[in-house]
Write a structure and sequence with these properties.
By secondary structure, this protein is α+β, with helices and mostly antiparallel strands. Helices cover 54% and strands 12% of the residues. Among the domains are: 70 residues, MYOD Basic-Helix-Loop-Helix Domain, subunit B; 89 residues, ACT domain (Alpha-Beta Plaits, 2-Layer Sandwich), CATH 3.30.70. One of its GO terms (biological process) is guard cell differentiation.
């Protein structure tokens, strides 16, 4: 036999090696053990199993003192913000008449402030119209007196070298007439009417425009100012046109001056509105006014 030729130490090693390789595990059959011996697992699978066993290092959490300090700081900042907000709301409420604030909550105070500001804007526009009317009347009276004085001086003295200080006053009065009565309410208008359209009272910037239009847009709220000639049923047509393009009118002020009318409109851009910028809204408003103008001309001709 082959075992007889082995020494005792070699025989012991052979027995230990044979028992470790060929002996099945307690939960494994003999066929599975033979399959495992004939097909050992590849090295890549062993490496993947080794990588899966690795665990991520736990995140270093802040200690309790740092977390508590951060929480208390956030609470103090929020408390200070609420305190300042309440103080500002109290001051705002004290500046308004009681009729504009029905309740003391924040929404009522802010809503009343909006109404009060729009009312002040209307009063300012009305006073500006009255001021312009008085200056125009005063300028006409001064021009009449100056013309009379010039005629008298020309009849008495025909010397062309004489200096006439009243001529400067006449130039100043004529420049007053060429200034728009509501120019301060139009900072950067998208459309500005020509002199011919407004009776030689305005600076021409766009001959194609039929009205002064300025639109400012903040999120979904648009502030629109329109200065145009007065037309029959113009306001009702503007309101209907705004509704057709999904613009809801929240506030509306109307100021008239001779043949002119100034509309100050605060509108909300609804979800279905196709107008996404201030220029687009201004263009749509100008298109509305052009249609109203054409209808008025056709009505006069018929």
């Amino acid at each position: 036999m082959a075992l007889e030729t082995l020494s005792s130490s070699e025989l012991l090693n052979f027995i230990m090696y044979d028992s470790t390789v060929s002996a099945p595990t307690p939960f494994e059959s003999s066929e599975a053990a033979e399959t495992r011996q004939s097909h050992p697992p590849p090295a890549t699978e062993t490496a993947v199993q080794g990588r899966k066993k690795r665990r991520r290092r736990p995140k270093v959490c802040k200690n309790k003192e740092e977390a508590e300090t951060q929480r208390m700081t956030h609470i103090a900042v929020e408390r200070n913000r609420r305190k300042q907000m309440n103080e500002h709301l109290a001051v705002l409420r004290s500046l308004m008449p009681e009729s504009y604030v029905q309740r003391g909550d924040q929404a009522s105070i802010v809503g009343g402030a909006i109404e009060f500001v729009k009312e002040l804007e209307h009063i300012l526009q009305s006073l500006e119209a009255k001021k312009f009317t008085l200056l125009e009347q005063q300028g006409n009276n001064n021009n009449t007196n100056i013309n009379n004085n010039i005629n008298n001086n020309n009849s008495n003295n025909n010397n062309e070298d004489n200096y006439n200080p009243d001529q400067e006053i006449s130039d100043d009065n004529s420049s007053i007439k060429q200034v728009s009565p509501f120019a301060q309410f139009f900072a950067y208008p998208q459309f500005s009417c020509s002199n011919n359209q407004m009776g030689n009272k305005y600076t021409s910037q766009s001959k194609a425009a039929i009205a002064d239009i300025e639109v400012t847009l903040i999120e979904t709220h648009a502030n629109i100012r329109i200065l145009s000639r007065r037309r029959l049923r113009q306001l009702s047509k503007i309101v209907a046109s705004f509704h057709s393009v999904s613009l809801t009118i929240l506030h509306l002020n109307v100021t008239t001056l001779d043949l002119l009318v100034l509309y100050s409109i605060s509108a909300k851009v609804e979800e279905g509105c196709q107008l996404s910028s201030a220029d687009e809204i201004a263009g749509a408003v100008h298109h509305m006014l052009r249609i109203i103008e054409e209808e008025a001309i056709l009505g006069c001709q018929s």
